[in-house]
Amino acid sequence: KAGVTQTPRYLIKTRGQQVTLSCSPISGHRSVSWYQQTPGQGLQFLFEYFSETQRNKGNFPGRFSGRQFSNSRSEMNVSTLELGDSALYLCASSPGVGRFNGYTFGSGTRLTVV
Amino acid sequence: TQLLEQSPQFLSIQEGENLTVYCNSSSVFSSLQWYRQEPGEGPVLLVTVVTGGEVKKLKRLTFQFGDARKDSSLHITAAQPGDTGLYLCAGSNTGTASKLTFGTGTRLQVTL
């Protein structure tokens, strides 16, 4: 059973640019969540998508957006990048129905904004 | 805003020693999970606890959920170098089951 796949693994962008990160969940999982991990703030919830609809949203500015496709793959986009957006972005999948028993995380995308 | 405070922040011990990591909050959670994260990788789920007072054992790891479902602990017996990593607790609430609040993390290093 393939795990959660995130691409790319590493990315360097310039301030002001935009970036798109991709996530393929475990087969059969319909929920995909995104988290930002930084040394100062730890892991913070960005948003969750379930069956192509945003089901939950964290406290991030509108520059952070996402979407989910019919095959459950998800993308997140960050526009007008700021230096503070440098972080490890983690995607996590779960079945999305029934009792929540935890996530399976991908290895993350390390974004550096210069 | 719900917060989960972990202690200690850092722990450096020798192989064979025992240790306990604590996860505390002023808020009630419907369930709590523990994850371990290694450098350059995503967190890996260790356990989920859902009932106040619940104790779960995973080989040398023992997890406990507080009676009031506000706190949890992770005890490792006879630590091994392979236990090295960042340990994270994370709580969820029924209404937003898959929106986790993560703890501040405990970085454990086990040396020979």
What does this structure look like?
The complex is a heterodimer of chains A (114) and B (112). Chain A has 114 residues and is mostly beta strands. Chain A is 0% helix and 53% strand. Chain A has no helices and 11 strands. Chain A has strands at 5-7, 10-13, 19-24, 31-38, 42-50, 53-57, 64-68, 74-78, 87-94, 104-105, 109-113. The radius of gyration of chain A is 13 Å and the shape is globular. The model of chain A has no long low-confidence stretch (mean pLDDT 94). With 112 residues, chain B is an all-beta fold. Chain B is built from no helices and 11 strands. In chain B, the strands form 2 sheets. In chain B, strands 2, 4, 5, 9, 10 and 11 form a 6-stranded mixed beta sheet that branches. A 5-stranded antiparallel beta sheet of chain B has the order 1-3-8-7-6, with no helix packed on it. Chain B is globular, with a radius of gyration of 13 Å. The chains are: A mainly beta (114), B mainly beta (112). Chain A binds chain B through residues 4, 31, 33, 35, 42-45, 48, 55-56, 58, 90, 92, 94, 96, 99-108, and chain B through 31, 33, 35, 40-45, 48, 50, 88, 90, 92, 96-105.
